[in-house]
């Protein structure tokens, strides 16, 4: 049987684990302090400095087990008694604890809840919460002085888990994460309002000292060096969550990523394979789930979790094996075959309502009763969406209020509700719910007037349904085409919805509740603004570290609220930051493609009509023409020696004449004589935007980081240097590349990266000088003396350059004339 003291220890152990799993911090020393008070209040005499194996003898009773006794001994010996007993700090903590409990008991006996609240208000303290909350705040302030407000957000501080934490909001987007062990206190005595007629408080007020003592806090019992708050666990528990327990199979990851994970995980005792083994924990995949992949099929047969690459990223970052649930991609793969976006009027009825075929979104003038709300707060783990619609019957006046809510990327969490009501009641209910969820009246958003994001509330997303009618990967366009066969195949590549879907899934955009290509330009711009703020914070060391962290979290919250993602996280390193810049650039191109021609596969918007909307003449070149042979030589000759993972095969070449581009380029052609035919590579999803609008420079709201020589249009003279940016793989090996005539003029030469807004006066472009260059004696000349640097790569005479290969940058789009579009097949060796 367990002794009373042992039983109490075990109860606290259980409570400790409950608090750990609920995300609440517990300090070991505070637990000890609690135990001291609890045993005292329970009437059990506590023998000072008793070790875990020196327990007072009491009679045994039924229910005792050797396992429970062993657990008690281990916890008492190792967890609580880590600090030597009998120290001066130990004595001071015990004395302070007795005084705290005595004051708590007195307030409970003699002071009402209303009087507690009055005192807090009179001393500028937070007066919200339960009676217990109010009493705790009063005790702390009466003993040690009233707390000053949070230095970051001016919110109220409260003592919890060995720290004083802010419970306010840093901004409308984030809860404040400020915490401290040494809070500022207000000067002066604790005030007792005159209207309180309480003898106990009057007596206490007269006896209080002018100078308050400083609260003694137990030393931290956890490591907070990395921002995490992890309670010291037993060695056995720590081992069960270590990287050494990872046994993963990896499929489809780039070689560099594979080697990085293998080095870090196997260095800790884990294993990383390319094939599933008997002891494999999970299968890690990159991009879209491939149902035909042998490892995918094997994982399903073995019922292994299939997770995204960021699972390994987070495991390595946190140095432990994490749960699989929030990283699984199976649900995404299963639901990716059909995106039902059925637009009627100016909006789309959500498919979960079951009314897509029989109803439409209610519209009154410019007002559309349809909204998608988003909220992401990394400090609390919130990552939620809320969809609200009024659906009207196509054949009558019946209306329905439809709601769908849940966690982004997790269909298992959330729900739906559909209520039938009159039109007037539906509008009233819609507005009531919108106000409840956002803190703003519906009119403020619908009319774009004075909408203000409210703390802890949702924010509406701008969704532009454009011209799309329905998207289905299973439908084929059977309309006859007057285009050349080569051009028909190119158009199918450009307008293949699966390509765009894969790009959004690669960037973990919430495909389930974000129709393809419908995130508006405004949202993307807001995302860029949040990234720019993060960039400024990362480069600024003037802030206090805790303040800087809070501001980075706030900006990350804004980013992931505007760009709903399956796995939002704090953007705090350069690689992650650059990947988000690339994501927004890709979303910009998808938005352009969606707005221009949509992703409709219906025959009434044929490939010919899509081609016409590009406003760019695209003509296939005969394979036996001089231009084709020159381009093929340029491609085959200028493959850089370090780009060994793939070879290139030219499939087709198309000449380009984008409407209006020649006229804009003409002045530079006449004025700047240094003109070259140079390479530019990009994702397949970017080419609808490129062909219709030309090569463009990053927008002003985009952050500066990620552009080695500033915001401009980048070119190369070695094909493989540009081909890297096509981002092909074994499953999708065909990419598109451009050859453009570039008016370089006087060149500003640099041997290392340098961010500039534009070249110095008298210079028209920037050239990064590489250590390897095309052999100049093998250069060719094209029309009107345009230089084609088609020589084989050779070492340059430069020794001090930090760049491997040449790069060319222009800062004015009019200096570029697109000449050829190349369809290129990548033969990947791995």
Verbal overview:
- One of its GO terms (molecular function) is NAD+-protein mono-ADP-ribosyltransferase activity.
- InterPro entries: ARTD/PARP (IPR050800), BRCT_dom (IPR001357), BRCT_dom_sf (IPR036420), PADR1_C_dom_sf (IPR038650), PARP1-like_PADR1_N (IPR049296), PARP1-like_PADR1_Zn_ribbon (IPR012982), Poly(ADP-ribose)pol_cat_dom (IPR012317), Poly(ADP-ribose)pol_reg_dom (IPR004102).
- Residues 38-65, 217-243 are annotated as: Disordered.
- Belongs to the ARTD/PARP family.
- This protein is of the alpha+beta class and 830 residues long.
- The chain has 24 helices and 37 strands.
- The strands form twelve sheets. Strands 15, 18, 19, 20, 21 and 22 form a six-stranded antiparallel β-sheet that branches.
- α4 packs across α6 (131-144), α17 packs antiparallel against α18 (545-562) and α17 runs antiparallel to α19.
- The longest helix is centred in the C-terminal third of the chain and has 24 residues, at 574-597.
- The radius of gyration is 33 Å and the shape is globular.
- The two termini are 64 Å apart.
Shape: globular
The first-to-last residue Cα distance is 64 Å
Q: Uncertain regions: pLDDT < 50 for 5+ in a row?
A: 1-85, 222-240, 331-340, 467-478, 600-604
**How confident overall, as mean pLDDT?**
80
Name the CATH architecture of the largest domain: Alpha-Beta Complex
How many DSSP helices?
24
Can you describe this structure in just a few lines?
This protein has 24 helices and 37 strands.
Strand and helix map with partners:
Elements: H1 4-21, H2 28-41, H3 66-80, H4 88-110, H5 113-122, H6 131-144, E1 157-160, E2 163-166, E3 169-171, E4 174-175, E5 179-180, H7 199-207, E6 222-223, E7 230-231, H8 235-240, E8 247-251, H9 255-266, E9 271-273, E10 282-285, H10 294-301, E11 306-308, H11 310-318, H12 330-334, E12 338-339, E13 343-344, E14 347-348, E15 359-361, E16 363-364, E17 367-368, E18 370-377, E19 382-393, E20 399-407, E21 410-421, H13 423-438, H14 442-446, E22 459-460, E23 471-472, H15 485-494, H16 497-506, H17 521-538, H18 545-562, H19 574-597, H20 607-613, E24 616-620, H21 626-637, E25 646-658, H22 661-671, E26 675-681, H23 687-693, E27 713-715, H24 719-723, E28 734-743, E29 747-750, E30 765-768, E31 770-774, E32 780-782, E33 786-788, E34 793-795, E35 803-805, E36 807-810, E37 816-828
Helix pairs in contact: 1-2, 1-3, 4-6, 5-6, 17-18, 17-19, 19-23
